[in-house]
Amino acid sequence: MKIDVFTLFPEWFGWFSSQRHVANALACGSALEYVNPREHTPLGAGQVDDTPFGGGAGMVLRVDVLDSALRAHYGVDPVELRERRRVIALAPSGRPLDDALVDELAAEAEMTLLCGRYEGFDERILEHFASDVVSIGRYVLSGGELAAMVLCDAVLRKLPGALGDERSAHEESFSAALDGDPEYPHYTRPAEYRGWRVPDVLLSGHHQRIAAWRRERSRERGAAAEPPRRGA
Ligand code: ADE
């Protein structure tokens, strides 16, 4: 998987790339590349954003700047680029990132992530350059960088070699193996601590009963986890 991240703050990703499962994925043939639109701006003094038409607070990432940066990197019109590869803009208004979308993206050979800053993107970037708009939740971050890291983390850990034990990604929260439910609870030693005992079934060595117990806990968590909407 080759991921190009368009960001005004590439240095933020230094820590991220050094995390073990990300480093493992990179060692197994994945690649993360960073492109700073400021280095490709056609405007003076490294300008990349501007005030919103119609007024309002904050600054908006300019469409001409993203056009130049994408064109410089890929050598094609970004309007055509999105026909050939996933170009994903991170924005709170986008499609919610969930395990199904992560699986879909993990099957791609390459993708591009666009990080907005300040008030976000000029809408024409989303309309004409992005193939997808993705949100990591119903809250507003100060930019798309953390959202891009969340997406990369979730995708890269699905790839072979990223995790020490491939079973970790198979039967985990929201996976098909658990019918989309959250994962069951885990326990480790000591078997009793301050009077809190690990459920007997997990110490029984009875694999079928353990599997049935886990499935049931997972279902319970799924039923309890439906989030209330604001104002509901
Ligand atoms: N940029 C700002 N907030 C965001 C969010 N919630 N998801 C994705 N990108 C964002």
Run of helices and strands:
EHHEEEHHEHEHEHHEEHH
Strand order of the largest sheet: 2-1-6-5-7
For the largest beta-sheet, the strand count, sense and barrel status come to:
5 strands, parallel
Shape: elongated
Number of helices: 10
Rg, nearest Å: 21 Å
Task: Report the bound ligands by name, code or SMILES.
Answer: adenine
Proportion of helical residues: 25-40%
* Distance between the ends: 41 Å
Structural class: alpha/beta
Strand content: 15-25%
> Whole-number average pLDDT?
93
User: Which segments are poorly predicted (pLDDT under 50) over 5 or more consecutive residues?
Assistant: none
Structural commentary:
By secondary structure, the chain is of the alpha/beta class. 36% of the residues lie in helices and 17% in strands. It has helices at residues 13-17, 20-27, 63-74, 78-84, 99-106, 123-128, 145-156, 167-170, 200-203, 207-224; strands at 2-6, 31-35, 49-50, 60-61, 86-96, 110-115, 132-135, 192-193, 196-197. Strand 5 (86-96), helix 5 (99-106) and strand 6 form a beta-alpha-beta unit. It is elongated. The structure holds adenine. Residues 90-92, 116, 135-137, 139-141, 144, 147 line the site of adenine.
